[in-house]
Amino acid sequence: MIDIREGDINAFFAAPFAAYGKASPYISPMLSDLRRFLSAKTNPLFETADDFAIFTAHENGAVRGRITAHVHRASNQRFGLSRCYFGYFDCVDDERVAASLLERVEDWGRSRGFSEIIGNFNLTAMQQIGITTGGFEHAPYTDQIWGPPHLPKLLESRGYSPSFPMTTFEIDLRTAPLDGILKSSAMQALLADGFAFSPIQRSTLDRRLEDSRLILNESFIDNPMFVPVSRAEYEFQAKEMKWIMDPRISAVAEKDGAPAGAVIAIPDVNPMLKAMGSRIGLSAPWHLIKHRLKRRRAVVIFQGVKPAFQGRGLNPLMLAHVLGQMKSAGYQTVGGTWIADSNAASLRQAEKAGARPLHRLHLFGKTL
């Protein structure tokens, strides 16, 4: 018999390890970060405790799967939806377990009057989203989602349909044609026109993060599912980045001294988390030192240009600049978060940078 429990964060953390084993590419956030994010008391995304719930499936004393249910009220209001989300869906390859978890989140949504459910959303469109549908053999970078091949099958067996196809990418900095992103003549013309780069240093981090939030909100305003991010939400999400940021690989692009665009990138901490089991233990300081000495993978969290400066080549200029900085700093590869199939401009830019597809992703949804 499958037992569904609510609110057991320790079982929630353990579920994917139990379901997939140590040899899988799955990498968990730190348990402390999960506690912080998956709490209606601490996460400013949620208006009330009734906006969010976590569930775990248990059988014969063992945890067998997990899932979250939540509502993003700002998204429903902006797009005129009656939608709830599921997220962090991980379970063994067992239709009984999957059905029990999905039934629970569906009942959660129906009881609150929602007419549809869709996921994964961990927790918004600006964070990890989607169910992995291809590239299962590739280890994810920080902020990339990974799941095994049986998850989409389990969802389809429950009546969920795939939509909104996406891809994550990887660039090998050792072979990438960085000079192919933007012609040197175009680059020099932009610099001569008053564009310049300001690094994101620890002394200016708070101000630059606020600059990047405003750029994010302006540049992504017309993107599907995007909801402007409040300062409280952005600072809450950025809190975990501050201790791992490398000032050399993020930058704000300015035009005559005013912020015009930004690239936020961080070292990929997933290899360190994998070695630590995503827990703080006695070996954590050693793993942190080793990570800092051997940072070879980076990940671009987001890149955006204010509408007033779009269409002038600033996006490729920023990407060429940051990738060059990464290469000079000794990074060898860089991953990117999801790009939707509908985003032709970003896909073209990734192609020019020599990016190769890493994971295929889809959202899975159904009516309630």
Mean pLDDT: 89
Structural class: alpha+beta
One letter per element, helices H and strands E, the order comes to EHHEEHEHEEEEHEHEHHEEHHEHEHE
CATH superfamily of the largest domain: Gcn5-related N-acetyltransferase (GNAT)
Distance between the termini: 25 Å
Tally of discrete structural domains: 2
Uncertain stretches of 5 or more adjacent residues: 281-287
Shape: globular
Could you please say which CATH topology of the largest domain applies here?
Answer: Aminopeptidase
Record the SSE blueprint:
Layout: E1 3-6, H1 9-20, H2 31-37, E2 52-59, E3 62-70, H3 73-79, E4 83-91, H4 95-111, E5 116-119, E6 121-122, E7 128-129, E8 131-134, H5 150-157, E9 161-172, H6 184-192, E10 195-199, H7 205-219, H8 231-238, E11 251-255, E12 258-267, H9 270-276, H10 284-293, E13 297-305, H11 314-328, E14 333-340, H12 344-352, E15 356-367
Parallel strand pairs: 4-5, 13-14
Antiparallel strand pairs: 1-2, 2-3, 3-4, 5-15, 6-7, 8-15, 9-14, 9-15, 10-11, 11-12, 12-13
Helix pairs in contact: 9-10
Tell me about this structure.
- This protein is of the alpha+beta class and 368 residues long.
- The chain contains 12 helices and 15 strands.
- It folds into 2 domains: 165 residues, Gcn5-related N-acetyltransferase (GNAT) (Aminopeptidase, 3-Layer(aba) Sandwich), CATH 3.40.630.30; 188 residues, 3-Layer(aba) Sandwich (Aminopeptidase).
- The strands form 2 sheets. Strands 1, 2, 3, 4, 5, 8, 9, 10, 11, 12, 13, 14 and 15 form a 13-stranded mixed beta sheet that branches. Strands 6-7 form a two-stranded antiparallel ribbon.
